[in-house]
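#lab-general

N.A. 3:47 PM
ok so I finally got the sequence cleaned up, no stray characters, all 128 residues accounted for. can someone with queue access submit it? mine expired

B.Y. 3:52 PM
send it over

N.A. 3:53 PM
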Amino acid sequence: MVLHKGSCHCGAVAYEVDAPEDLLVHECNCSICSQTGYLHLIVPRSRFHLLRGEDNLTEYTFDTGEAKHLFCKTCGIKSFYIPRSNPDGISVNVRCLDESAIKRVEIELFDGKNWEESAAKLAHLSED
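B.Y. 4:20 PM
back already:
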């Protein structure tokens, strides 16, 4: 494990996440993920540390309301959120991480359009 630093575009929201140098991430084809270009790195909450900006986050929910999409109030970037598939974990947008700690990124496709049939494939990612 290495320490990855991440932030929104303006830097008002910043965090650290413990994850491997070689990242396995998920590209979801649901409407919100494909429209924002989000690449998911789902980790247990214990491996995510918000450094600043909690008061600068705004929340958006839809459908079941289970996913907590968190956006920076200043620049509008969703650099992390609480996913419906793993409400006990955090999904970090790999595109918001400092590239210096990343050795390699492998992208696995996730069928979010058929979420009910696919969600179980992600359940293990938020386990310690």
